[in-house]
Amino acid sequence: MTNLLPSTERGHVNFGWLNSHHSFSFGDYYNPERMGFRSLRVINEDRIEGGTGFPTHPHRDMEIISYVIKGALEHQDSMGNKTRILPGEVQRMSAGTGIRHSEYNASPEEEAHFLQIWILPDKQGYEPSYGQKSFAEELEKNSMVMVVSPSGEKGSISIHQDVRLWISRMKKGQKETLVLLPGRHNWIQMVKGQITVNGQDLKTSDGLALSGEKDLSFQASEDSEFLVFDLA
Q1: In whole angstroms, what is the distance from residue 77 CA to residue 101 CA?
Q2: Bridge partners of 230?
Q3: What does the CA dihedral 135, 136, 142, 145 come to, rounded to 10 degrees?
């Protein structure tokens, strides 16, 4: 089973300082048919103007992942973390019993472009925690890199859910196959480029849900970047 979400059919808000597209219901955008996919609850593609950002606000019982595509984000939270998130880096914040944080564009002038991802944890009440790692070197050497997993396997960042996340950067004409365990579900989120996945064409910012596949076969028709979620 596959279900395509073209980029043009996502929810959209533009507040001037923030231009955001929502794959699933979020904020003022509500679609009862798009409340998430399995434990994947939010994928927002955000563009933040220079010198602006999200002031301090709370979260709880959510696994929050940020992936910067262009620019940089300044992060500060109630656990004492104060960091900068750069392209090629992945940040995971487990909100658990409660956390407050802010995220601002690190540049006073240039736009920051990133994906904000929320995943429901496997249970509530975890102690808040934080993880951040650069995968830039691995992405230069490999076309598909695991960046998030339940146990932190292969150097990935751990998460409180049965989810694995890969980032892929494929050159034009390149092919890759990802073998899956039985009974899994997958979401492909395009960042840029154009690929074919199990016969389905995807282009920049498209999303694709798949269930019951034995493997995922990718072919890039141009230089491409995308995320692959493997979900219970």
Answers
A1: 4
A2: 164, 186
A3: 30
Q: What is the DSSP string of 21-90?
A: EESS-BTTB--TT-S-BTTEEEEEEEEE-TT-EEEEEEE-S-EEEEEEEES-EEEEETTS-EEEE-TTEE
Whether 209 contacts 39, CB under 8 Å: no
Contact 70, 86 (CB under 8 A): no
Distances (CA, A) of 61 to 64, 127, 216: 10, 9, 31
Structure tokens of 226? Answer: 């995308």
Asked if 100 and 138 touch (Cβ cutoff 8 Å), the reply is: no
DSSP secondary structure code for residue 8 in this structure:
G
How far apart are alpha carbons 34 and 111 in whole angstroms? Answer: 28
Which residue has tokens 């951040």? Answer: 132
- Series of mean pLDDT values for 10-residue runs along the chain (232 residues): 95 97 96 97 98 96 98 97 96 98 96 98 98 96 96 97 98 97 97 98 98 97 98 98
